[in-house]
Amino acid sequence: MSATELSSRSTVLHESFFENLITEAKLLHNLVHTRIIPSANTYQERLTTTYSNTLAILRDEKLLANQRKTIAGLSGTIEQLTDLLGSLHHQIHDAEGDLKTLDSKATLNKWYGPLMETMPKIRALSDHLESTIDNTLWPLPKYDDIFLTSK
Question: Is residue 44 included in any domain, yes or no?
Answer without folding.
Answer: yes
